[in-house]
Give the backbone structure.
Amino acid sequence: MTTTKPHRATEWWKARRRRVLWWAVISVVVLAVVVLVARWLRGLPAVEQFIETYPGVVPPPDGTPVGIPAWLGWQHFLNAFFLLLLVKTGFELRSKRRPPGFWTRDNTRWPRTRRAPRRLGIYLWLHLWVEALWVLVGVSYVVLLFATGQWLRIVPVDWAVIPNALSAALQYASLEWPTEDSWVVYNSLQQLAYFAVVFIASPLAIVSGLRLSSVWPLEGPLVRGFPERLARAVHYPVMLFFLVFTFVHVVLVFTTGALRKLNQMYAGRDVDDWVGFAVFAASVVVMVAAWVLAKPPLLKRIAAKSGRVQG
């Protein structure tokens, strides 16, 4: 007789079903409480006066470009694509299951490399490669951001952004969205969120990821100054931050005029038609295909082109 090995998703659900259900219930209750408290606060005269004084948007400085260029749409897709694979491989690594294969650098193909080759699990190998590509995309994004002046849209230059961000958060929480036109200017909460993603969370993810990778020195001041335990304590919460940001970002896109927002993000057009949605749908198909195809048999064949694969 032969037995069929349970699917990993089924195993994961059986092991964490109760915890997931409890977190779902707690999340719904917390969300309901936040909405009720926010709507109660908005009924107070002082709070209404605060929202009138700080509507949630700070006028952009002179010279701020209007609109979202096409290169930003491509960057948006590439960042989402690589982030998806980073999350997939990151959860595989955190599961601590034995990798289905191991990759070792072939020094005969890299004659100038002096360091002894280190064996990497196939998912860690993919994680490091995807992270390298994501960093490359991020560097090009920052260069284009400053070269085109788009940085003025996401970098706060006025302290008024703080009370306006609080006002925008209160308006979102009360389910009465703040009035904004992201084609011209982001509201203050969006601006702070995008700034945090680009200039705080991303560098933390990169540095902590490098510390946990095979490129970091095995000994010396860099090891003592940045312990591996600290890197792990930073890397995982940053990944959770990206997941929360992505979830909220997607929800707001689809609840504040999906066609126009998708056109702005993916087609560089400030109109209500289906072009941006079509590009978005195609990008989702590509990401789903990458998720499905990123399985050990294919990964081993690709990894074998740059080293030795065992297992």
Summary: The two ends are 26 Å apart (CA to CA).
